[in-house]
Amino acid sequence: MPTHLDLEEAMAISEMAFLPCRGITDADSSDASYALRVEDETGAALLTIAHIARSQYSDPVHLAGLLEQARLELSKDGIHLTPWSMPTQSGASPSR
Fold first, then answer.
1. Positive or negative CA dihedral for 29, 32, 33, 34?
2. What is the pLDDT of residues 26-42, one digit of tens each?
C-alpha cells in the first residue's frame, strides 16, 4: 500500500539527507510547502531549494529522487556527503 509523507516527516528526512553538512528547512504554512538550505560547517550556503511543494514531498519516491538529485549536484561540486537512502516508511508518523 502506498504511503505518503506529511510536512514534518518530509522536512526531517530532508535535513538528514545531507550529513555531515547541515540541512535547514523552513515551512511555509500558507501552502504546506517548505524551503531547504544546505550549509557547510562555516554556515556558508552550499545549496538552496526555495520551494518544495506538497506534490513533491508527499510521495516518498518523488522526494527521494529530488534529494538524490540535490546530493548529486553537491557531489559534482566536490562536497563529500555520508551515504544516505530514503528511510523505510511504515505508514506511521514518527513521534517527536
1. positive
2. 999 899 999 999 999 99
